[in-house]
């Protein structure tokens, strides 16, 4: 869990650093192309038979990739234009709460309890505090609702996917499932970036290329695979538990690398959200 939290948290901070010098759309496109090549290479190296055997389910896996990889990554990257990496991580820390709610409706073995419901309410109070205080985590950034809206879009995409994986792909080969998702997500994102005129390799420097490579490896490959593993082997709620530690990682790295600020309302909100996560985990 700690390794996944560091991989994700550091990737969020370095993504915000990268999009300062590159279009966020281009950053996402390159990240996803590189990640899909990495994961597909591993899947092929481990043996083509599982990959080919799953071919009838490729369309279903591909659609999952759009919701589970493309939507959260695009939404979170765009959100970083308006909020700090710590604020974004606090929003994504809500994922276990929403996952519990969706799992109650879709999974027979993960029912909602009074304690889980209380955790969801407490976590939402934490987000309400952020919104009411107009927190952005960036001293020079005025409040803009787009950052929160994009963050929530990414959270819901990941939460829905977590439950769907648990319901429909519990026995699927993890590398195959990850590879097909990443390739489909990369294809969709690249198509969008080209259509909106954001594709330009002239934006790529040695620094931004290194940042893209790090984020692709740490978040789109390592964290994504660990998320799938926890989801498939344990529960949809367990897969989201690294969210406990990600805000702490981003707060420390964001302040050190980007000069982001952590305010008292953010600390109070974080306490409420983590408290909600604790209640959900305790009930699970």
Structure in a nutshell:
By secondary structure, this protein is mostly helical. Helix content is 76%, strand content 0%. The protein has one domain.
Structural key phrases:
0% strand, 284 residues, mainly alpha
Describe the structure.
- The protein is mostly helical.
- The chain has one domain.
- The protein contains 13 helices and no strands.
- Helix 5 runs antiparallel to helix 12 and helix 7 (114-132) packs antiparallel against helix 13 (264-283).
- It starts with a helix and ends with a helix.
- The mean pLDDT is 84.
Topology:
Blueprint: H1 2-18, H2 24-45, H3 48-53, H4 58-79, H5 85-92, H6 95-106, H7 114-132, H8 145-168, H9 174-195, H10 206-233, H11 236-239, H12 246-258, H13 264-283
Percent strand: under 5%
> Roughly how many Å apart are the termini?
16 Å
Category from helices, strands and their pairing: mainly alpha
How many individual helices? 13
Radius of gyration: 18 Å
Total domain count: 1
Helix content: over 70%
Rounded average pLDDT:
84
Uncertain ranges: none
Q: How many E-type strands?
A: 0
Bulk shape: globular
Order of helices and strands: HHHHHHHHHHHHH
Largest sheet: none
């Amino acid at each position: 869990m700690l390794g996944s939290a560091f991989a994700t948290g550091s990737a969020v901070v370095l993504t915000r650093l990268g999009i300062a010098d590159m279009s966020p759309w281009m950053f996402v496109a390159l990240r996803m192309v590189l990640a899909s090549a990495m994961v597909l290479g591993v899947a092929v190296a481990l043996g083509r038979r599982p990959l080919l055997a799953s071919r009838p389910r490729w369309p279903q896996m591909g659609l999952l990739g759009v919701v589970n990889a493309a939507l959260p990554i695009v939404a979170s990257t765009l959100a970083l234009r308006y909020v700090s990496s710590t604020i974004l991580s606090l929003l994504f820390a809500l994922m276990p709460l929403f996952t519990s709610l969706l799992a109650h409706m879709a999974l027979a073995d993960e029912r909602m309890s009074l304690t889980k419901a209380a955790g969801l309410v407490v976590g939402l109070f934490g987000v309400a505090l952020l919104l009411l205080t107009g927190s952005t985590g960036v001293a020079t950034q005025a409040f803009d609702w787009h950052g929160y809206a994009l963050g929530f879009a990414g959270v819901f995409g990941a939460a829905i996917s977590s439950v769907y994986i648990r319901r429909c792909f519990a026995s699927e080969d993890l590398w195959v499932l990850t590879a097909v998702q990443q390739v489909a997500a990369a294809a969709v994102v690249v198509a969008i970036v080209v259509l909106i005129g954001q594709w330009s390799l002239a934006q790529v420097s040695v620094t931004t290329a290194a940042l893209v490579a790090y984020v692709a490896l740490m978040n789109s490959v390592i964290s994504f695979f660990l998320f799938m593993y926890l989801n498939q082997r344990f529960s949809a709620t367990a897969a989201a538990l690294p969210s406990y530690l990600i805000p702490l990682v981003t707060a420390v790295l964001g302040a050190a690398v980007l000069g982001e600020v952590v305010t008292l309302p953010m600390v109070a909100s974080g306490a409420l959200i983590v408290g909600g996560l604790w209640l959900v985990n305790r009930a699970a």
